[in-house]
Amino acid sequence: MLKRALLHLLKNAPPIGPAPKWHARLSSGPQFTEGPVLTKPPKTPSGLNIPIERRDFIHGSGLLGLGLGLESHALSSTEGVLHPPTYPPSLTGLRGSHPGSFEAAHAFARDGLALANPKQDVDHFDAVIVGAGISGLAAAHYYRQQFGNDKRILILDNHDDFGGHAKRNEFHQGGRLHLAIGGTHNLEYWQFSHTVNELMGLLGVDIKSLRAQSEFNYGRTGRHAHSIWFDRQTYGRDQLIKGCSLKGPPSASPLPYLDQFPISAAARQELRQFYEAKTDCLADMTADARSDFLHSTSYFHFLRDKGGLGDEALQLFAKACHGSWGLETACLSVAEALDEGLPGLNLVGESADESDWSYPAAFFPDGNASIARLLVAHLIPKITDQADATTIATAPFDYQYLDQPGHPVRIRLLSTVTDVRHTDQSVSTTYIADGKPRQVRSTHVIMACYHSVIPYICPELPERQKQAQAYQIKYPLMLTNVLIRSRQPFDLLGIDGTTCPGRMHAGLFLMNGINTGGYRHHLTEPGATVVAFWGSLSPPSTAVDLRSQLRASRQRMLDLSFEDYEIEVREVLNGLLGNHGFDADRDILAITVNRWPHGYSHEYLDLWDDDYPAGQAPHEIARARYGQIAFANSDAGASAYTHTAIEEAFRAVTSLASST
Ligand SMILES: Cc1cc2nc3c(=O)[nH]c(=O)nc-3n(C[C@H](O)[C@H](O)[C@H](O)COP(=O)(O)OP(=O)(O)OC[C@H]3O[C@@H](n4cnc5c(N)ncnc54)[C@H](O)[C@@H]3O)c2cc1C
Question: Which atom of ligand 1 is nearest to the CA of 1?
Fold first, then answer.
């Protein structure tokens, strides 16, 4: 997901990177506004008791659910919706961090619950890799490249599917496959290094052709432009305002539409003055002072102080960065927010150009899950028949080949690693599969999992390294995909997506127009389609600093039941489309909630992180090789991107190769 880079517009703005410290964070820092409370209609509203396949039957099963993740798909089906029984991408209900995937790590690694004696695996591997995300899969490729194709590798992952965040959702309806992105969206190819380009070349990924075959742009361009939907529960009436955006190019300025905003006249007037202003409130500052101000002042503080906005107007912007950052806008500095495309350049003597919003996306229809699939097909060719980058999205994958004795690379799912430590000549890895502890030995271990879990798993690491890993708390994200019977209500309304400043998910868009990887679902095709609800979860107002906010959001995401998510999407779709022939009872065919409580890697923020001298930043300390254990994952680069996950895999493997 692209983060804008408008900073070049800011006079004398320093290059993106370490920013001046902000020493008085809590006194004049962000004022947190709680997101609207999730309002629930009376339990079991009409339609909720319909026994459709989208129910999540094992949520709340806790430890009983360990190892049972694959059973959640054994559900009945809605009319016309078919689900192959043991194929993880087509499972609905709570996915992403699905029930059964995280409980063992929490109980045995984090909370230290005692384990019975693990059963020793007979196999000895050259490398055990913890985490089957893009980084773990790329690490397996680089390990073979650097140590030899005959090397034996075991990849362990706690989920029932490979790919980490790079997951896909499949819906089978009316005889056709509807693909949706379950986590990682697109390739930010303009940032690719030589290493990443080389791997993409090996996998046959042709960015130019991906670009040429995509009409998709989050519902904002193509046939339809920006829009904002104000909902009744938050704003008193349901109102869609087309043609404008709170965070968008000059042509989508809300100024001509402010009279229609269902907020108080006073708040509308504040917004009008704010958008109309043309001034440079920093004009009397030196270049250094200006830069210092932009990086050390909270954006919300700036909006209040220099923009004259009060709480009611500020609330509109509170979730504007949920999708792109996974946090509240109030956490960003002025520089970060303006860089994001939020309004305010006009207060510092600047203006943006329409072209700054052109979005050079390169997508597969299942997001970067296709990259994960290409990697798996490269590592375990038997899993699919002759899939390449032009067919990968629709190529059938036979999961029985993931973990075959005798094959040099094995991927073992539903296996949570709880302990890794050196023994005499090797490294011993304890993991839980099928609810039972097992142990495997290997020459090397590559930790390609989240860094914040590693201190619980690798007790022998130096304290400083463990603290640095624990520091890398991730930003939570969620992507709820809803298969609806027809896109016609959207067509009647004249939108392909909208932002919802008052709702739990800050935006939604139709998931079609990506015709790559052998998959075709054109933007205008009639019939069933997937609506993607996208964003993060606002923390409670009691969480006042960044880290407690991230933790609280993460916990809230896990605490909500499938029904909570379902109620939310039903309310939104009925409110938005109800006057155009949509009826949630009839028209929602399936729901898949992709929760990512550990989402984007921790990227350093102006207001919350210190300036670190080269080599001393937490991610640099966290990723130092320790004996025969190396550390990959996008956390190792403190950058939430697929290319970072790949680069860090390369660095981790190289660090092992150079030590032998
Ligand atoms: C919703 C979402 C959207 C995103 N969009 C984009 C985008 O558009 N473009 C982009 O470049 N990046 C995007 N990202 C960032 C994404 O994180 C990276 O691109 C990349 O997929 C990270 O890969 P990884 O292998 O480093 O980590 P992960 O994908 O997190 O993989 C690590 C794996 O290790 C597993 N693991 C953790 N602990 C254990 C344990 N104890 N035992 C076994 N396994 C364990 C995890 O469960 C996971 O499966 C997005 C992320 C999210 C969540």
Answer: 8
458 φψ region: left (φ > 0), alpha (ψ -120 to 50), beta (else)? beta
The C-alpha atoms of residue 113 and residue 579 are separated, in whole angstroms, by: 53
Q: What is the pLDDT of residues 494-519, one digit of tens each?
A: 999 999 999 999 999 999 889 999 99
Ligand 1 binding pocket includes 505 (Cβ within 6 Å): no
Distance of CA 575 to the CA centre of its chain: 26
Distance CA(654)–CA(657), nearest Å, equals: 5
**What is the pTM (predicted TM-score) of this model?**
0.90
From residue 640, alpha-carbon distances to 325, 459, 470 in Å are 9, 26, 17
| Cβ 225 vs Cβ 233: under 8 Å | no
Residue 640 in contact with ligand 1 by CB distance below 6 A: yes
Q: Say how many C-beta atoms besides its own lie within 10 A of residue 195's C-beta.
A: 17
Q: 404-414 burial, b for 16+ CB within 10 Å, e for fewer?
A: eeebbbbbbbb
Task: Identify the burial level of 288 via C-beta atoms within 10 angstroms of its C-beta, where 0-12 means exposed, 13-18 middle and 19 or more buried.
Answer: exposed
How many whole angstroms separate alpha carbon 225 and alpha carbon 219? 7
The domain spans of the chain are 117-162+402-472+605-657
Cα dihedral 369/452/593/36 (nearest 10): -130
pLDDT surpasses 60 at 61: no
CA distance 88 to 398: 11
Contacts of 136 (CB under 8 A, 6+ apart): 129, 130, 155, 157, 164, 446, 448, 449, 632, 633, 649
CB 623, CB 598: distance < 8 Å: no
- Name the residue with the closest Cα to ligand 1, atom 12: 641
- The pLDDT > 90 percentage for the chain reads 76
The ligand 1 atom nearest the CA atom of 166: 21
Q: Which of 441, 393, 477 is nearest to 628 (CA)?
A: 441
Contacts 24+ apart (CB under 8 A), 544-552: 544/26, 544/32, 545/25, 545/26, 545/608, 546/327, 546/331, 546/605, 546/607, 546/608, 547/473, 547/608, 549/32, 549/327, 549/328, 549/331, 550/327, 550/473, 550/474, 550/475, 550/476, 551/473
Nearest partner of 652 among 483, 501, 439, 448, judged by Cα: 448
Question: Over 8-32, what HEC string results?
Answer: HHCCCCCCCCCCCCCCCHHHHCCCC
What the block records as the tokens of 491 is: 């067509």
Cα–ligand 1 centroid distance for 600 (angstroms): 7
Q: What is the pLDDT of residue 387?
A: 87
Q: Is the CB of 56 under 6 A from ligand 1?
A: no
Query: Whole-angstrom Cα distance, residue 245 to residue 103?
Result: 40
**Phi, psi (degrees; rounded to nearest 5) at 443:** -70, -45
Taking only the tens place, the pLDDT of each residue in 450-474 is 999 999 999 999 999 999 999 999 9
Does 530 contact ligand 1 (Cβ within 6 A)?
Answer: no
| Residue 163 and residue 88 in contact, taking contact as beta carbons nearer than 8 Å | no
Measured CA distances, 356 to 4, 157, 223 (Å): 8, 39, 20
**Residue among 481, 466, 477 at smallest CA distance from 624:** 466
Say if domain 117-162+402-472+605-657 classifies as CATH 2.120.10.30.
no
Residues 26-43 have a mean pLDDT of 31
CB within 8 Å of 185: residues ≥ 6 apart: 1, 363, 367, 368
3-state helix, strand, coil in the chain (%, to 5): 35, 20, 45
